[in-house]
Design goal:
homodimer, 435 residues, alpha/beta, nicotinate phosphoribosyltransferase, TIM Barrel, seven-stranded antiparallel sheet, six-stranded parallel sheet, 17 helices, 41% helix
Chain lengths: 435, 435
């Protein structure tokens, strides 16, 4: 889909002015999060691949140009220029799934000023949302623990179908096991999972008939047991499991979606165990997030897996990431703006990750130590790296996530200056000199 | 875009079972919000037109079917059936822009059970988000007042490009004046607006040169005055206005985007007035929402208009609407589920709006009084009404909005049972009888 017109109008009026004045020299913009994010001790960078695809689709269609013409704001030569415009820039970025922090550049985009300006809205829109969801998903995984199966159930509450695709992708990248979103399964190769709804149970004369029918029609049945009474539901599940046993088939799990999940999970576990079905697992869902999963586990809840929907897909406690895209360098050198309470990082930088998540942001001309996090992924508008192998990267991210030091893995809000981001002498000098 | 595969996997496994068992009789599902929504004294229904379009695009592509086949869950005859499936149902719904409340059906969908089940995820995804944003936008308008110009600035923080289109549409429907989202302008005919960014100012040797250039290149310039020092910025704007005066051209407004907006707006107003430019307006932006706009006005802030972004597009204080889609009737009559804390509305209903926003939900066979809110908008999968005229409807919605009784217009949270939704004797009898 052509992405040129997905831009704030002011990008176009500014571009028009740059065009008229020949102000189209190379400029560099940095994407970063300015201030500590409440309730987030770290962020998980995501959205790069979708962004690179969108940049390769950057163009204005005939309809777009006719519409812009109708606004009466733009000269014809500028519209002709837009009609031929493609994204030709260079991008340095962190790898998707990288643990990252406010105050450090996550992506640097260098392009002729007009291109760089026109793709601002698109860049922010994609990176802000995927990074937001990946960061939330990481916390949910930390609460659930490395043994639990965690599934994205968010599509019905996400902000549109595209948001649901991003949510499935970003949560899988962070380490989720599957999504209920069938389209995301097809598009991204994410495993899909699902059970049954209350309406299915209600479509049969009684719960037992519904369970029998579903178990017959599904190769790996998971039975939702709380349409009427969850305890009776568990007993009905046992009865069907006994019937299936004779045929060499099994109930995989039962699902609880309402009520006091902790107490119910314990009682259902007892019913299943006493009936001789310790292998039937318990899957819980219903307005879960990292806080509720932590509480569920602390109170002794028993679950093999969690379905997480609404509070994942909208990142309930922090529903938007305030990432910004700021001019950091142009033909006149490093740039920054100085209005109250808002700072910028002047100049092109590298982020060096040092032992134990201590990051150093240093100017390109300075030498850093540690692992450089920004890699060149696009040049001349062409991708330099193959598309991300989500499944492989997910494994790596899970390993990093479940080995995080307690200061980062802790789910409580951090003390104020807990982000371990340092600035190099060269960068500090530049900031001080410009103030 | 084909929408069949945008569904939770369990809709497909349930549908597969219905198909195998010939359980494809007509069923009716209701879309409604169960419980009072914190911080929302009313909701504004939105998203119907996008939903009807999506339902008309309901189909499975060859790629979709090949993918489903690869999952090993579905029989070939079911996949063949899906390949031919279109949405053929009937829909009764409130008009977009209708003030509405939790506990009443906003939409009823009647179709063969399999179709009705498969479109659940899509229906919830679209209606939940547009209704969420329209409801938030209505509150922002109430805070800004009927005289203020309010513009959607949300695209960079919305959850994807599609979310940004929905946000522009729903906020315009609620009564916003414009959007910064150029693509939304083209697709929905919404007026587009925008000023300039800090990076534009920084692209010139100094602020004054930037202002002069922009005023020359833009027919209706709005100058952003807080890149460096907003007071000096206001003086620079005055200087450019004086220069333009000689040429018969004007500065439309100045924009403040940071700092203490209330105090700055007063000081900038004084500077503009004293320089003889009472017609230059002040536009403010920067993490605004209804609470901040109300405080800004109460503290004496002076603004002609407001740009509202992040907190509109993600509905910051309530980032998801928990609308549900429940089976209410099938070939066996009215249906409801009874698990703890979750109730349903059994049977097909009408919502009657009576004097002063007292709503009565009554069974179809009962006669109600007042204005019936649910209208038949689709039958046999075909739209019965033309596409909504957004601009016309926006005018009507604004009139209703700014004439709301104080109990609804108040921005503070309502006392618990404040929603004026009553249930008819027939409905109450049905619920009691089934408990």
């Amino acid at each position: 889909m052509p992405t040129g017109l997905f831009t704030d109008l002011y990008e176009l009026t500014m571009a028009h002015s740059y065009f008229r004045r020949g102000l189209n020299q190379t400029a560099t913009f940095a994407y970063f999060v300015r201030a500590p994010v409440p309730n987030r001790r770290f962020l998980l960078f995501a959205g790069l691949d979708p962004l690179l695809t969108a940049l390769q689709d950057f163009r204005f269609t005939e309809e777009d140009l006719a519409y812009l013409d109708s606004l009466g704001l733009f000269a014809q030569d500028f519209l002709d220029f837009l009609g031929k415009l493609r994204f030709t820039g260079e991008i340095w970025a962190m790898e998707e799934g990288e643990i990252c922090f406010p105050g450090e550049p996550l992506l640097l985009l260098t392009a002729p000023r007009i291109e760089a300006q026109l793709v601002e809205t698109l860049t922010l829109n994609i990176l802000n949302y995927e990074t937001l969801v990946a960061s939330k998903a990481a916390r949910i995984l930390l609460a659930a623990g490395p043994e639990a199966v965690v599934v994205d159930f968010s599509p019905r509450r996400d902000h549109g179908q595209e948001a649901a695709l991003h949510a499935a992708r970003a949560s899988f990248l962070a380490g989720f096991h599957a999504t209920s979103n069938t389209l995301a399964g097809r598009l991204y190769g994410i495993p899909v999972a699902g059970t049954m709804a209350h309406s299915y149970v209600m479509s049969f004369p009684d719960e037992l008939s519904a369970f029998r029918a579903f178990a017959e029609d599904h190769p790996r049945p998971v039975l939702l047991i709380d349409t009427y009474d969850p305890i009776q539901g568990a007993r009905n599940a046992v009865r069907v499991a006994q019937e299936l046993w004779a045929k060499g088939k099994e109930i995989v799990a039962v699902r609880l979606d309402s009520g006091d999940l902790t107490a119910l999970s314990q009682e259902v576990r007892r019913i299943l165990d006493e009936a001789g079905f310790p292998n039937i697992k318990i899957f819980v869902s219903g307005d879960l997030d990292e806080y509720r999963i932590r509480e569920f586990r602390e109170r002794g809840g028993v679950a093999w897996g969690y379905g997480v929907g609404t509070r994942l897909g909208v990142s309930w406690d922090v529903p938007a990431l305030g990432g910004v895209y700021k001019l950091v360098e142009d033909e006149k050198g490093p740039r920054m703006k100085t209005s109250p309470g808002k700072i910028s990082l002047p100049g092109k930088c590298q982020v060096w990750r040092q032992e134990g998540f201590q990051d150093l942001v240093a100017l390109d001309e300075e030498t850093g130590e540690g692992r450089p996090l920004l890699r060149r992924v696009m040049a001349g508008g062409e991708r330099l790296t193959p598309e991300l192998d989500l499944s492989r990267r997910r494994e790596e991210v899970r390993q990093v996530l479940f080995a995080l030091p307690p200061t980062l893995a802790d789910l409580t809000p951090a003390e104020a200056p807990s982000y371990p981001v340092e600035y190099s002498p060269g960068l500090r000098h530049l900031v001080t000199a410009r103030r």
